[in-house]
Amino acid sequence: MSGVGPVEPGEGTHVRDAPSAPRPRRGPLERYFEQHRRAVLGALLISAVLAGSGYLHATRPRPESPPAPPHPSQVTTVAYLNPQAVDVETDPRSFSFGVEVTVESDPPVTVTRISQPYAGLSVTSDPRTPFRTKAGSPRKIMITMRVTECGKVPRNVGLPFLDVTLRNTHAIQMHSFILGPRYAQDLSHALQVACSNDFR
Amino acid sequence: MRQRSLIAITAALAAGALTLTACGSRDDDGGGSDSGNGGTTVVIGVDAPLTGDLSALGLGIKNSVDLAAKTANKEKYVEGVTFKIEALDDQGQASVGQQNATKLVANDDVLGVVGPLNSSVGEAMQKVFDTAKLVEVSPANTNPALTQGVNWQKEKVRPYKSYFRTATTDAIQGPFAAQYVYNDAKKKKVFVIDDKKTYGAGLAATFTEEFKKLGGKVVGTEHINPESKDFSAVATKVKNSGADVVYYGGEYPQAGPLSKQIKEAGAKIPLVGGDGIYSADFIKLAGAAGTGDLATSVGAPVEELPSAKEFVANYKAAGYKEAYEAYGGYSYDSAWAIIEAVKKVVEDNDGKLPDDARAKVVDAMQNVSFDGVTGKVSFDEFGDATNKQLTVYSVKDGAWGTVKSGTFTG
Amino acid sequence: MNELPQQLVNGLLLGSMYGLVAIGYTMVYGIVQLINFAHGEIFMVGAFGALTVHLYLLPDGTSIWVALPLMLLGAVIVSVLVAIGAERFAYRPLRGAPRLAPLITAIGLSLALQQAVWAFYPEAKSKLPFPQIEGGPFSIGGATIQTGDIFLLIAAPVSMAFLAYFVMRTRTGRGMQATAQDPDTAKLMGVNTDRIIVIAFALGAVFAAVGGVASGLKYGQIDFKMGFILGLKAFTAAVLGGIGNIYGAMIGGVVLGVVETLATAYIADIPGLDKFGSQSWAEVWAFILLILVLLFRPQGLLGERVADRA
C-alpha cells in the first residue's frame, strides 16, 4: 500500500478562536429604547399580562361536555329474516322479504330511506319510510321489490346489499347493509321467478 | 475460457444474491413496555414488516400493540401480570415470518402473537403457532382461506384452531368493492391487475367474480412483478383496453406508481384497490394523479367511532413517531383480545398462570368479547371477527376521504 | 388503436436506462476483468446525491430547469467519489488476488452501500419523492412521451456519443484501449494503468449518475434498493451486448428493455401462452433470450473487448 496519509496535527497546533467582533454601534432602535425606556417597558408588561391571561383563559378547565351520541350506523343492525309470500296475481314482478331493524343504544334512529343499488329494481317498504326505531325494540320491516326492467337486473350476485339512510340526533348517514348469503340466494331465486318467461 | 467461467460463476452468484437478500433477517427488539407491578411477565409477540416498503403499516401495528400493553399495565388490568411486547420484523416475507414464528414459540413467556400484516406471511406462520398451541391474532390478514380453508367458496373448514383475526375477509371486501364500482361509481369495464401474492390475487379474484355477476365486463387482466417499478407496458395495455376503471389487488408500494403511470399513459380512469393501498404513502407515491382513486378498507371510519377517537388521542399522547395507519385500531384490539384471554385464564386459576397457559389462552380467545376500538370484538367459529364493517375511501385533496360504509350482517 | 409504437417507446426508455448503467459494468470489466456488482449502488447513490442537492442545498421553489443541471452535477460528484473510493479502498488492495475475492468484495460493498443509505440518509427507510419536470406529455407519431422521460431520451445518446469520442479520440481513451488489450505491455509503454483504472471507474459512475437522475425523474421516487434489481438487469444487458464492449452495453440494454416490454404486451395474445404473458413473466422471457444468445453467440451480440471495436 502506498500513499501518504493526512498529516497529523503536531503538539501545540490548535484552532484559534476567531477574535470576537467589535461591539456594533448603537442602532436607531436602541436609541429609541434609551429615550422611551418607561413607555417601552410598560407596554411590554401590559402585553405580557394580556398574553398570560389569554393563555389561562384558553386553557381553563372546562366541564366535560357530554359524549356525543354515536353515529347511527354504529348502533343499527339490519338483519335478513326470510322471504314473504306475495300475492302473485296482483303483480307477478314483485316479491317481498322481511328484515329486522335493531338499534342497540339511544338515541332512537330514524330510517329515512331504503334503496338498493341495482338498475331495474324499485324498492318500497312497509312501514313506509321514514320510521323510527328505539333502542331495545326491534322492528320488523317488510321490503317489497319490483322488477322494472329484467334486462338490467343482475341474476346471481354474491353479496347484494341494501342502502339504508339513517338519522339520529347526531348525524345522517347512508350505510350499506350486506345481508349475507341467504339473502343473496333468495334474491336471485326471486329475480329468476320474476323474470322467467312464464308470464310473458 | 477463464472469462466465460467467471461470467457463469457471477451469474450464479447474482441469482444467489437475489434470493439471499430476500431472506436476510433483521431483528428489531420492540420498545419494551414499562414493567413495575412485579409478578409474572407475559410477552405479546408482534410480527409485522418493520422495515422495507410496507413498514408504514407494520410500524403502526407494532406501536398500537405496544400502546395496548402499556394501557393494560397502567390500569393493572390483569392482577399480577405485566405485559411486554417483543416485536419481530418479517419484511413482508413468508420465510422470515416463519422463522420469527419459531422464535416466538421458543420463548415460553409469549402467550399470544399479534400479526402479521401480509396474508402470505400469515399462511406460513399458522402451522408453527398451531402446533405450539400459541394464539395468533392478525389485525390485517384478509385472505378468506386463512380461517375458512382453501375451499372456502364451497365448504368452509377451519384449518387452524389457534388463528384468529380482527380484520374482515376479502370474501366480503372484494364483492363490496365490486358493488360500489359497478352500482355507485357506474363503471362497467374493468381492467384487473394483481401482484400474484396471496392477498392481492385473492382479493382480485373475489372482486372479479362479483363484478362479472353484476354484469360488468373484464376487458383485461395483468399480473405485475412487485419488484418492478416500470409499469409502462402494463399502463399502455390498460389504456388500449378501453377500460373505465382499474382494479388492483396488491399493496401501496406498487399501487402508487401503477396509478401514476396509468394516468401518464393517457388513461384518466380511477384505480381501485383494497385495504393494502389504504395508506397515506399511496397518495405520496401516486402524486397528483391519484386524485379520484378509491380504496376499500376494513372497519368503519375512525371519526364515526367514539372508542376510536380515544385510541387516536392516546396514541398521540404516547408520542409514537409513526402514524397508526390502516390497522392501528385492529392491532390494538388484537392485542387487547389477547390481554382479555390472559385475564380470563389467570382469573380461572386463582390469579396465577397455569402450566398449560398457551392452550388455555387459545380456548379463552374463542369466547372473548369486549368493546374495542373498532367496535364489538368477538370471534366466530372460524376465528373471524364477528364485526364486519367495510368502508370505501377516495383520494381528495391529497388525503383519503370517506365515501360510503357498509356492514355485513349475514 | 395500435399500441406497438407506444410499447416500443416504453421499451426504448427502459432499455436506455439499463444501457446507461450497463456501460459502467462493461468498462470496468473490459479493463480489469472485474464485475463490479456495487455498480447498481453507484447508480443509487447518484440519485440520492441529486435529491440531496434539491432538498438541502437549493432554496425551496427553485425552478426545475435551474435545479436539474445542479442536481445532475451533485449526482455525478457523489457517484464518482463513491466509485473512486470503492476502487481505491476495496478493489485496488485485491488487484493481485484470485478473481473471486474482488467479486465477493463487490457484493459485500453493494450491500454495505445499500444499508448505509438505509440507515443514515434521512427518511430513506421508505421511498422518497423525487422532483418532477412540469408540463404535459408529448405525442409523437402515435406514442406519448412523458416530460420526465425527455431527459433520458436526450441524455442516453449524448452520453454514448461522448463516450465514443472519449475512447476513440483522446489520449486517455487510447490508453484505456491499450490497458484493456494488455495491461502489462501498456504499463511498459508508459501508460499509467492505475490512473486508467480509476478513470474507468469514474466514467462508469458518471453514466450511472445520469441514469440515477433519469430514473428519479421518470418514476418520481427513489429508494435505497433501487440499484439492486436495476444493477442485475444492467449486468444482464452488458452480457447480452457482449461484456467489455461499450456499444454492446447500450444495445444490450435497449434489446433487454424492448424484449421485456413486448413480452408484457404481446405474449398473452399468443394462443396457449396466455398464462405466461403478464408482466411478472417478462423477466423470464428476457432471460430466455439471454440464454439463447449466449448459446449461439457466447461472446454476446457485439462481441467482447472494448479494444476490438472501440
UniProtKB/TrEMBL annotation, chain A:
Region listing for Disordered, in residue ranges: 1-27
Superkingdom, taxonomy of origin: Bacteria
Protein name: Tat pathway signal sequence domain protein
Species of origin: Streptomyces griseomycini
Automatic annotation (TrEMBL), chain B:
Signal sequence interval, chain numbering: 1-22
Entries under CDD domains matching the protein: PBP1_ABC_LIVBP-like
Key words of the record: Signal
Domain (Leucine-binding protein): residue spans on this chain: 41-398
Pfam families with a match to the protein in the record: Peripla_BP_6
Source taxon at top rank: Bacteria
InterPro entries, alphabetized: Leu-bd (IPR028081), Peripla_BP_I (IPR028082)
Record's keyword annotation contains Nucleus: no
Keyword Signal belongs to the record: yes
PANTHER family per the UniProt record, alphabetical: AMINO ACID BINDING PROTEIN, LEU/ILE/VAL-BINDING ABC TRANSPORTER SUBUNIT
Family under the similarity heading: Belongs to the leucine-binding protein family.
Protein name stated in the entry: Branched-chain amino acid transport system substrate-binding protein
Organism annotation: Streptomyces griseomycini
UniProtKB/TrEMBL annotation, chain C:
Recorded topology in the membrane: Multi-pass membrane protein
Sequence intervals crossing the membrane: 12-35, 42-58, 64-86, 98-121, 150-168, 196-214, 280-296
GO MF annotations in UniProt: L-isoleucine transmembrane transporter activity; L-leucine transmembrane transporter activity; L-phenylalanine transmembrane transporter activity; L-valine transmembrane transporter activity
InterPro entries in the record: ABC_transp_permease, BCAA_transport_permease
Organism field: Streptomyces griseomycini
Keyword Membrane: yes
Protein name (Swiss-Prot/TrEMBL): Branched-chain amino acid transport system permease protein
A single Gene Ontology CC term: plasma membrane
GO biological process terms on file: D-alanine transmembrane transport; L-alanine transport; L-isoleucine import across plasma membrane
Family recorded in the similarity comment: Belongs to the binding-protein-dependent transport system permease family. LivHM subfamily.
Alphabetical keyword list: Amino-acid transport, Cell inner membrane, Cell membrane, Membrane, Transmembrane, Transmembrane helix, Transport
Cell compartments where the protein resides: Cell membrane
Pfam family, one: BPD_transp_2
Lineage, opening ranks: Bacteria, Bacillati, Actinomycetota, Actinomycetes, Kitasatosporales
